[in-house]
Amino acid sequence: MRSTVIRASLAVVGAIALVGGCRVEATGGGGKVPPVSVSGSAPGPAASGSGSDSGDAKEPAPTSTPSVKPTPPPKVLMAPGNTGKRVRELQARLRQVAWLSVGPTGTYGPATAKAVSGFQGKRGLPRTGVTDAVTWARLVAMTHTPTRDELYASGGQPAAKPDPRCMTGRALCISKKSRTLTWMIDGKARLTTDVRFGSQFTPTREGTFHVYWKSRHHVSTIYHTPMPYAMFFSGGQAVHYSADFAARGYSGASHGCVNVRDEGKIASLFAQVRTGDKVVVYW
Asked: Alpha-carbon distance 169 to 137, whole Å?
């Protein structure tokens, strides 16, 4: 009877083991029974591709999101404090689109920075006042290559190569091309200044002349205008200081004379130049 009960109990335990999916050791006949191997298992995570039967599935590798690199700012081409020919061109182009009123100087100062900032803001660009590649491309697309007169609208052009006639003796070497007067002694430049000439209706004569009269406080008998530090070289034409040139620049013209707007330089010239010194006016 007792053995019947034990066998029945073992049958129940075996059934439970089959359902639970574990290994069971039944007792009996000395309290020991051989291990019972149970095939199959309870539903669980799928096995890994490596064949491991640990029952633990590998977590999927995180999907990496491509990093988006920030767009680098445009390359800076010119900024406040810069000087040179390119700055002069920038200023001339800004004058063409009416963002700069003063003539090009070749120096990137506050007025240029303000003009660049205004140009940028009008076109939806960041108002930095610094000329970057984007700003420059927009400005170039809207303007033409500046002429020599536009680049040097307020003067400051380098002196032209001296005419061979200026290379000997004492000479006022006056270039219409560069709009400069260079005082030369034995081929060496001693002083250079901006000058202005007559209009097409009253042109300044070209050629080789000599100073024949000096008049410190001269007043024109024809136009009744002051001609300080006048040094006459051809008829009524003279090299002299012009307050009009100093005020208006190249927006005006003389009546044939060679105007100087730097009073300090013309005063120095007047003190050095002698009657009989050479005057060469050339292109």
From this structure: 50
Task: Give the DSSP letter string of 100-147.
Answer: --SPP-SB--HHHHHHHHHHHHHTT----SSEEHHHHHHHHHHS-PPP
- Tens of pLDDT, residues 160-198: 999 999 999 999 999 999 999 999 999 999 999 999 999
* 273 and 183 Cβ atoms separated by less than 8 Å: yes
Continuous segment of H or E residues that includes residue 258: strand 258-260
Distances (CA, A) of 97 to 115, 122, 143, 221: 10, 12, 7, 42
- Cα separation of 201 and 177, whole Å? 18
**Beta carbons of 237 and 205 less than 8 angstroms apart:** yes
Q: What is the per-residue pLDDT for 65?
A: 65
C-alpha closest to that of 14 among 31, 39, 44, 42 = 39
Considering the chain, what percentage of its residues have pLDDT values greater than 90? 69
Question: What is the DSSP-derived secondary structure letter of residue 57?
Answer: P
211 strand-pairing partners? none
Residue ranges of the alpha helices (H) in the chain?
A: 2-20, 85-96, 110-122, 133-142, 148-151, 243-248, 263-272
Contact 192, 262 (CB under 8 A): no
Quickly count: other Cβ atoms within 10 Å of residue 141's Cβ.
Answer: 7
pLDDT tens per residue, range 200-223 = 999 999 999 999 999 999 999 999
Q: Tokens standing for 44?
A: 């669980």
Assign 6 to helix, strand or coil.
helix
Tokens for 87?
A: 């700055």
Return d(Cα 257, Cα 249) in angstroms, integer. 15
